[in-house]
Prior knowledge:
Elements: E1 4-9, E2 14-19, E3 25-31, H1 39-61, E4 71-76, H2 83-90, E5 96-99, H3 102-110, E6 115-120, E7 124-129, E8 135-139, H4 151-167, H5 175-185, H6 193-199, H7 207-212, H8 214-222, H9 226-250, E9 257-262, H10 269-280, E10 285-287, H11 294-304
Parallel strand pairs: 1-4, 4-5, 6-9, 9-10
Antiparallel strand pairs: 1-2, 2-3, 6-7, 7-8
Amino acid sequence: MTYFLGIDGGQSSTRAVIGDEIGRVIGAGRGGPCNHATGPEGRAKFTNAIRTSVGQAVEQAGLDQAVRFSSVYAGLSGGPAHKLALLSQVVPNDHAVVAGDAGIALSGATAGEPGLVVIAGTGSIAFGRNREGRTAQVGGWGYLFGDEGGAFWIFREAMRAALAYEEGWGPPTSLRARLLDYALSHDLSVNNVSGLMHLCYTPEFGRARAASLATLVNQAADSRDPAAIEILDAAARELASLADAVRVQLFAPGEAALVSYWGGVFRSRGISAGFRRRQESQPGVHVAAPLYEPVFGALIEAYRAVGRSSIRLETP
């Protein structure tokens, strides 16, 4: 019996799944973040996350902890540099690939079929692959230069709207009250949005925490707040633009193109509906919900890396 391993490693956690030779998923595990692998501390965190997640998957599968995998594919945020050797030190294998995490999101969303995926969590990025195997990537520039439509971008636009209202030159919006309610309930010791803005420049209020407040915009939009509705529509427009930029590089005008999505931002009804509407107004484009999570996309790529491109997963 031969076994295959897929790994999805990011800023918050690392997930691993094991498949057997016919595509049955037989084990899964989770570990800590593994996005950095530079310096002794980063390497230790990386190897511990891989060892923990793979160890749990091996145990669930009922395999020996010393099992050697025929193929391992790891899709990792933070770039693949220096991580292949570390991975192979922890996980015995005959063949291993370390790549970015956008590709496994696509493979999971489309079950390995050609198409493109837009990923919108804290940030945003789009990645696609056509029938010839050619790929394209757009976005992923980080919060300083891009990440349009991502959760941090949504939070920033909400802050801008609330600040403009607070200073008297923007239209009324409930976003100001919602942001201040959050500050009060979390003992942030600010009594206006300007104070919250200055807090955003401190380590106490990092990007991940700021991005989590994007849900306040969804709540305001559900209450018909015009500013919130416009922010969500603008986010949908930006994410659709990322998809458009990938599609024109890989697919001819009018050619059938499967578009999918991944990330917490798409849980917003306003964003998902606006994204779908804009995409399906283009000839040949079909928007579909993701079939699998990215970690299963990594497993699909583990099979593909050794010529098993026709495998079909059987998930629990």
